[in-house]
Amino acid sequence: MLLGVLPAAGEHEIWYRYTVLGYVTDARGQPRAGQRVELVRERTRLSYAQDTDADGLYVIIARLGDESAGEALTLRLGGATARVTATFDPTNHSDERGTRVDFDGARVIERPTAFRATLATFVGAGRR
Fold first, then answer.
1. pLDDT tens digits, one per residue of 41-61
2. Range of the structural domain that residue 68 is part of
3. CATH number for position 103
4. CB neighbours (10 Å) of residue 115?
5. What's the rounded Cα separation, in Å, for the pair 9 and 14?
6. Contacts of 108 (CB under 8 A, 6+ apart)
7. Mean pLDDT throughout 80-84?
8. Count of the separate structural domains present in the chain
9. How far lies 85's CA from each of 65, 70, 112, in Å?
10. Does any domain span residue 118?
11. How far apart are CA 50 and CA 60, in angstroms?
């Protein structure tokens, strides 16, 4: 008997994840370690949470597949809330998907163009 083995898609694949990352700083620009940041999928109300590290960095990896392009997400830190749209090309299965959202004192700033560089720094630092 000859059995064939086909590759199986898994949640570790790029097209099953959407990463939201960023920095949390106080009004003076100092990192705020140990702050709980929460990401909520509006469609399912599923919540993902992560605490900031010593540099104020948080990295949240949500399970969002191709069908989730354009989905509304809510990011929370204490009383601060930001609405984010999961923006990506569902036909692109080679580039990481995500955005960067910083909590600068009382301001919440989305910086999608800084996502790839910040992710590369995080991965290159060997953080988990």
1. 999 999 999 999 999 999 999
2. 17-124
3. 2.60.40.1120
4. 20
5. 10
6. 75, 77, 80, 81, 82, 101, 102
7. 95
8. 1
9. 14, 6, 11
10. yes
11. 6
